[in-house]
Structure formats: C-alpha cells, structure tokens
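Quick start: read one record
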Amino acid sequence: MTTRNLFIITFIAIIGVYLYVFGEIKTIEMLKEEYLFLLALVPLLLVFVFFKVKLKNYELIDFNKNSNLSLKTTIIFFLVFQVIDYVSYDGFIGMISQWILYWIMGLIALLVIENINFYRNYKLANNKS
C-alpha cells in the first residue's frame, strides 16, 4: 500500500468516525479549528508541485530510503500519544478529537520530507547541466 493511499484511507476513516461520534456540525467545527494547519499545507503543496514539474524528466534518487520509520515504530508512537490524549483530554471523546490534528501533522511531515528529497534531486540535476 502506498503512502498516498494510506493517507486517503485514514482521512476517510477519521471523517467517518467523527461523523458517527460527533455529528456533522461538530465535525465541521473541529475541521475549522485546524485551519492554520490546513493553510500550512498550501505552500508545501505548491513547492511539491513545482519540484514535481521541474523534475518530471529526471530519474530521482531517494535520499530518504535509509530514514524511513517502520510501521511498528509508527504504531507504537501513535499508541503512546493516544494514551496521553486519553488521560489529558478526558477520555475517549477527547482522544479521538486529536486524530485530525495527527493526520494533518503527518501530511505536513510527509510533504516536508518529500520536498527536501526533491530539492536535493533538483540541485543534483542543476549541477549536472
């Protein structure tokens, strides 16, 4: 499963759980509360698209291949934060209210890592020319 598909599936699952637990109005309010984080995605996506277009005809090197976290490590981090949120935010409802923030932060981290990789490839491509 690709990272892109994983993010799409988890987003659908989070929104589904939010709609079931909180209802439509509360879900929309929770998404609106995260608008600053969502706005942070805009320049990251623009940079991502820029590099994607510029490096379209180049063979890319994955500079991040040795720095990937395993799925096991990611799940352990998630579970630790879930326990902390369960205690800090008064139980299950408070815990799941943080999921969309984790999802957005994960997307921001992924875009930053991809943009750094694209930037390194871009510099390498320009040095060869």
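The chain has a mean pLDDT of 88.
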